Fold this sequence. Notes:
Elements: H1 10-17, E1 29-30, H2 33-41, E2 49-54, H3 60-67, E3 72-77, H4 83-92, E4 97-101, E5 116-122, H5 128-136, E6 147-153, H6 154-161, H7 171-179, E7 180-188, E8 193-194, E9 201-208, H8 218-230, H9 236-239, H10 247-253, H11 267-279
Parallel strand pairs: 2-3, 2-5, 3-4, 5-6
Antiparallel strand pairs: 1-8, 6-9, 7-9
Helix pairs in contact: 2-3, 8-11, 10-11
Amino acid sequence: MSGIDDLPPLRQVIGDFGLSARKSLGQNFLLDLNLTARIARVPGDLSGCDVLEVGPGPGGLTRGLLASGARRVLAVEKDARCIPALQQIAKAYPGRLKVLHGDALEIDVGAHLSGEVRVVANLPYNIGTELLVRWLTPPEWPPFWRSLTLMFQREVAQRIVAEPGSKAYGRLAILAQWRSDVRIALSLPPEAFTPPPKVSSAVVHLTALPAPRFAADAAMLSRVVAMAFNQRRKMLRAALKGMGPDIEDHLTAAGISPTERAEQVPLEGFCALARSLHNR
Protein backbone atom coordinates (compact mmCIF):
# COMPACT_ATOMS: atom_id res chain seq x y z
CA MET A 1 0.00 0.00 0.00
CA SER A 2 1.15 3.52 -0.81
CA GLY A 3 -0.26 5.49 2.11
CA ILE A 4 -2.91 7.47 0.18
CA ASP A 5 -4.68 4.54 -1.53
CA ASP A 6 -4.49 0.76 -1.96
CA LEU A 7 -2.40 0.94 -5.15
CA PRO A 8 1.30 -0.08 -5.24
CA PRO A 9 4.07 2.45 -4.46
CA LEU A 10 5.20 4.42 -7.50
CA ARG A 11 8.66 2.85 -7.61
CA GLN A 12 6.97 -0.53 -7.95
CA VAL A 13 4.64 0.81 -10.66
CA ILE A 14 7.62 2.16 -12.61
CA GLY A 15 9.36 -1.19 -12.30
CA ASP A 16 6.27 -3.23 -13.20
CA PHE A 17 5.57 -1.22 -16.37
CA GLY A 18 9.15 -0.34 -17.36
CA LEU A 19 8.61 3.42 -17.09
CA SER A 20 12.07 4.95 -17.11
CA ALA A 21 11.77 8.71 -17.65
CA ARG A 22 12.65 9.92 -21.14
CA LYS A 23 14.46 13.21 -21.65
CA SER A 24 12.98 13.50 -25.17
CA LEU A 25 9.52 13.79 -23.57
CA GLY A 26 10.64 16.23 -20.87
CA GLN A 27 9.85 13.65 -18.19
CA ASN A 28 10.89 13.92 -14.54
CA PHE A 29 8.71 11.76 -12.29
CA LEU A 30 7.58 12.73 -8.78
CA LEU A 31 7.58 9.54 -6.72
CA ASP A 32 6.76 10.91 -3.27
CA LEU A 33 2.98 10.51 -2.94
CA ASN A 34 2.93 12.75 0.13
CA LEU A 35 4.40 15.49 -2.05
CA THR A 36 1.96 14.93 -4.91
CA ALA A 37 -0.86 15.05 -2.33
CA ARG A 38 0.43 18.46 -1.18
CA ILE A 39 0.35 19.73 -4.76
CA ALA A 40 -3.18 18.38 -5.19
CA ARG A 41 -4.30 20.46 -2.21
CA VAL A 42 -2.99 23.77 -3.60
CA PRO A 43 -6.09 24.61 -5.71
CA GLY A 44 -8.43 23.94 -2.78
CA ASP A 45 -11.60 21.85 -2.71
CA LEU A 46 -11.83 19.78 -5.92
CA SER A 47 -14.95 17.80 -5.03
CA GLY A 48 -17.09 19.83 -7.44
CA CYS A 49 -14.48 20.15 -10.20
CA ASP A 50 -13.22 18.49 -13.31
CA VAL A 51 -9.42 18.48 -13.22
CA LEU A 52 -7.22 18.51 -16.33
CA GLU A 53 -3.81 16.92 -15.87
CA VAL A 54 -1.20 17.01 -18.64
CA GLY A 55 1.70 14.58 -18.56
CA PRO A 56 0.65 12.34 -15.65
CA GLY A 57 3.41 9.79 -16.32
CA PRO A 58 3.03 6.88 -13.89
CA GLY A 59 0.21 8.72 -12.11
CA GLY A 60 1.61 10.04 -8.85
CA LEU A 61 -0.16 13.39 -9.06
CA THR A 62 -3.20 11.70 -10.59
CA ARG A 63 -3.55 9.57 -7.48
CA GLY A 64 -3.08 12.64 -5.27
CA LEU A 65 -5.89 14.44 -7.08
CA LEU A 66 -8.29 11.51 -6.87
CA ALA A 67 -7.45 10.76 -3.24
CA SER A 68 -8.04 14.43 -2.36
CA GLY A 69 -11.57 14.18 -3.72
CA ALA A 70 -11.48 15.52 -7.29
CA ARG A 71 -14.86 14.86 -8.91
CA ARG A 72 -13.21 13.71 -12.13
CA VAL A 73 -9.73 13.82 -13.64
CA LEU A 74 -8.93 14.01 -17.35
CA ALA A 75 -5.34 12.85 -17.84
CA VAL A 76 -3.65 13.55 -21.19
CA GLU A 77 -0.53 11.44 -21.73
CA LYS A 78 1.65 11.26 -24.85
CA ASP A 79 3.80 8.34 -23.71
CA ALA A 80 2.04 5.08 -24.60
CA ARG A 81 4.12 3.21 -22.00
CA CYS A 82 2.28 5.05 -19.21
CA ILE A 83 -1.24 4.21 -20.33
CA PRO A 84 -1.48 0.75 -18.62
CA ALA A 85 -0.34 2.27 -15.30
CA LEU A 86 -2.97 5.01 -15.61
CA GLN A 87 -5.65 2.46 -16.50
CA GLN A 88 -4.76 0.63 -13.29
CA ILE A 89 -5.55 3.83 -11.39
CA ALA A 90 -8.81 4.25 -13.33
CA LYS A 91 -9.95 0.81 -12.15
CA ALA A 92 -9.24 1.78 -8.54
CA TYR A 93 -11.34 4.96 -8.92
CA PRO A 94 -14.32 3.84 -11.06
CA GLY A 95 -15.84 6.57 -13.23
CA ARG A 96 -13.50 9.29 -11.96
CA LEU A 97 -10.46 9.06 -14.27
CA LYS A 98 -10.47 9.38 -18.05
CA VAL A 99 -7.18 8.84 -19.85
CA LEU A 100 -6.50 10.32 -23.29
CA HIS A 101 -3.46 9.09 -25.19
CA GLY A 102 -2.11 11.92 -27.31
CA ASP A 103 -0.30 15.25 -27.53
CA ALA A 104 -1.73 17.96 -25.25
CA LEU A 105 -0.76 20.57 -27.85
CA GLU A 106 -3.09 18.92 -30.38
CA ILE A 107 -6.02 17.57 -28.34
CA ASP A 108 -9.17 19.65 -27.84
CA VAL A 109 -9.89 18.93 -24.19
CA GLY A 110 -13.08 21.02 -24.08
CA ALA A 111 -15.27 18.15 -25.23
CA HIS A 112 -14.12 16.04 -22.27
CA LEU A 113 -14.56 18.60 -19.48
CA SER A 114 -17.62 20.13 -17.84
CA GLY A 115 -18.56 22.46 -15.01
CA GLU A 116 -15.81 24.18 -13.07
CA VAL A 117 -12.41 23.16 -14.43
CA ARG A 118 -9.07 23.35 -12.70
CA VAL A 119 -5.77 22.44 -14.33
CA VAL A 120 -3.20 20.69 -12.12
CA ALA A 121 -0.06 19.31 -13.74
CA ASN A 122 3.61 18.52 -13.43
CA LEU A 123 4.10 19.77 -16.97
CA PRO A 124 6.68 18.19 -19.26
CA TYR A 125 9.52 20.73 -19.36
CA ASN A 126 9.61 20.86 -23.15
CA ILE A 127 6.01 22.08 -23.62
CA GLY A 128 5.22 23.74 -20.28
CA THR A 129 5.67 27.37 -21.32
CA GLU A 130 3.83 26.91 -24.62
CA LEU A 131 0.84 25.36 -22.87
CA LEU A 132 0.75 28.17 -20.30
CA VAL A 133 0.77 30.87 -23.00
CA ARG A 134 -2.07 29.08 -24.82
CA TRP A 135 -4.14 28.89 -21.63
CA LEU A 136 -3.51 32.59 -20.93
CA THR A 137 -4.40 33.76 -24.45
CA PRO A 138 -7.71 32.12 -25.44
CA PRO A 139 -9.97 33.78 -28.04
CA GLU A 140 -12.40 34.75 -25.27
CA TRP A 141 -12.09 35.51 -21.56
CA PRO A 142 -12.93 34.11 -18.98
CA PRO A 143 -11.20 30.89 -20.11
CA PHE A 144 -12.35 27.28 -19.71
CA TRP A 145 -10.26 26.97 -16.53
CA ARG A 146 -10.84 28.50 -13.10
CA SER A 147 -7.28 27.98 -11.89
CA LEU A 148 -3.93 26.61 -13.04
CA THR A 149 -1.62 24.79 -10.62
CA LEU A 150 1.50 24.01 -12.62
CA MET A 151 5.00 22.71 -12.01
CA PHE A 152 7.81 24.55 -13.80
CA GLN A 153 11.54 24.94 -13.59
CA ARG A 154 12.06 27.53 -10.86
CA GLU A 155 13.46 30.03 -13.36
CA VAL A 156 10.23 29.90 -15.37
CA ALA A 157 8.13 30.18 -12.22
CA GLN A 158 10.03 33.32 -11.22
CA ARG A 159 9.36 34.83 -14.65
CA ILE A 160 5.62 34.29 -14.18
CA VAL A 161 5.45 36.12 -10.83
CA ALA A 162 8.16 38.73 -11.57
CA GLU A 163 7.64 42.43 -10.85
CA PRO A 164 8.78 45.43 -12.94
CA GLY A 165 12.44 46.31 -12.53
CA SER A 166 13.63 42.73 -12.16
CA LYS A 167 15.60 40.75 -14.73
CA ALA A 168 12.93 38.03 -14.68
CA TYR A 169 10.14 40.51 -15.61
CA GLY A 170 8.94 40.05 -19.17
CA ARG A 171 6.26 38.71 -21.47
CA LEU A 172 5.26 35.78 -19.25
CA ALA A 173 4.73 38.02 -16.21
CA ILE A 174 2.55 40.42 -18.17
CA LEU A 175 0.43 37.75 -19.86
CA ALA A 176 -0.10 35.95 -16.54
CA GLN A 177 -0.70 38.96 -14.32
CA TRP A 178 -2.97 40.79 -16.78
CA ARG A 179 -5.70 38.20 -16.42
CA SER A 180 -4.95 36.24 -13.24
CA ASP A 181 -3.67 36.36 -9.69
CA VAL A 182 -0.36 34.51 -9.47
CA ARG A 183 1.81 33.09 -6.70
CA ILE A 184 4.48 30.48 -6.13
CA ALA A 185 2.82 27.87 -3.93
CA LEU A 186 5.61 25.36 -3.43
CA SER A 187 9.32 24.92 -4.18
CA LEU A 188 10.93 21.55 -4.85
CA PRO A 189 14.60 20.52 -4.97
CA PRO A 190 16.00 18.40 -7.83
CA GLU A 191 16.21 15.31 -5.62
CA ALA A 192 12.40 15.22 -5.35
CA PHE A 193 12.32 13.90 -8.93
CA THR A 194 13.43 10.78 -10.76
CA PRO A 195 15.73 11.38 -12.54
CA PRO A 196 16.79 14.59 -10.72
CA PRO A 197 16.81 17.58 -13.10
CA LYS A 198 19.74 19.99 -13.04
CA VAL A 199 17.58 22.80 -11.64
CA SER A 200 15.08 23.37 -8.85
CA SER A 201 11.36 23.43 -9.58
CA ALA A 202 8.35 25.34 -8.29
CA VAL A 203 4.58 25.04 -8.34
CA VAL A 204 2.82 28.18 -9.58
CA HIS A 205 -0.86 28.79 -8.84
CA LEU A 206 -2.84 31.11 -11.12
CA THR A 207 -6.46 32.07 -10.47
CA ALA A 208 -8.38 33.49 -13.42
CA LEU A 209 -9.84 36.96 -12.98
CA PRO A 210 -13.40 37.56 -14.24
CA ALA A 211 -12.01 40.27 -16.54
CA PRO A 212 -8.50 41.56 -17.35
CA ARG A 213 -6.90 43.76 -14.70
CA PHE A 214 -6.70 46.70 -17.14
CA ALA A 215 -8.52 47.29 -20.43
CA ALA A 216 -6.52 46.48 -23.56
CA ASP A 217 -6.86 44.70 -26.87
CA ALA A 218 -5.31 41.27 -26.32
CA ALA A 219 -3.67 41.00 -29.75
CA MET A 220 -2.19 44.49 -29.57
CA LEU A 221 -0.92 43.99 -26.02
CA SER A 222 0.73 40.71 -26.97
CA ARG A 223 2.38 42.33 -30.01
CA VAL A 224 3.66 45.35 -28.08
CA VAL A 225 5.02 43.28 -25.22
CA ALA A 226 6.74 40.78 -27.53
CA MET A 227 8.43 43.56 -29.48
CA ALA A 228 9.42 45.53 -26.36
CA PHE A 229 11.06 42.58 -24.61
CA ASN A 230 12.63 41.15 -27.76
CA GLN A 231 15.06 44.07 -27.51
CA ARG A 232 14.84 44.72 -23.79
CA ARG A 233 18.21 46.51 -23.61
CA LYS A 234 17.04 49.21 -25.98
CA MET A 235 15.00 52.27 -25.08
CA LEU A 236 11.35 51.75 -25.94
CA ARG A 237 11.36 54.41 -28.67
CA ALA A 238 13.93 52.24 -30.48
CA ALA A 239 12.59 48.81 -29.51
CA LEU A 240 9.07 49.75 -30.68
CA LYS A 241 9.93 51.77 -33.76
CA GLY A 242 8.38 49.02 -35.86
CA MET A 243 4.98 50.02 -34.43
CA GLY A 244 5.09 53.23 -36.47
CA PRO A 245 6.84 56.60 -36.77
CA ASP A 246 4.58 58.11 -34.10
CA ILE A 247 5.52 55.61 -31.39
CA GLU A 248 6.98 58.32 -29.14
CA ASP A 249 3.64 60.12 -29.15
CA HIS A 250 1.87 56.92 -28.08
CA LEU A 251 4.41 56.23 -25.36
CA THR A 252 3.96 59.74 -23.99
CA ALA A 253 0.17 59.44 -24.18
CA ALA A 254 0.40 56.23 -22.15
CA GLY A 255 2.48 57.98 -19.48
CA ILE A 256 5.68 56.17 -20.47
CA SER A 257 8.96 57.96 -21.10
CA PRO A 258 10.28 57.03 -24.57
CA THR A 259 13.72 56.53 -23.02
CA GLU A 260 12.55 53.85 -20.58
CA ARG A 261 13.29 50.19 -21.16
CA ALA A 262 10.68 47.45 -21.22
CA GLU A 263 11.53 46.01 -17.79
CA GLN A 264 10.79 49.39 -16.18
CA VAL A 265 7.20 49.59 -17.42
CA PRO A 266 4.43 48.15 -15.21
CA LEU A 267 1.53 46.13 -16.55
CA GLU A 268 -0.80 49.15 -16.42
CA GLY A 269 1.60 51.11 -18.63
CA PHE A 270 1.75 48.41 -21.30
CA CYS A 271 -2.05 48.21 -21.29
CA ALA A 272 -2.32 52.00 -21.72
CA LEU A 273 0.13 51.83 -24.63
CA ALA A 274 -1.80 48.97 -26.25
CA ARG A 275 -5.03 51.00 -25.95
CA SER A 276 -3.43 54.05 -27.53
CA LEU A 277 -2.03 52.07 -30.46
CA HIS A 278 -5.28 50.14 -30.94
CA ASN A 279 -7.35 53.34 -31.00
CA ARG A 280 -5.10 54.74 -33.67
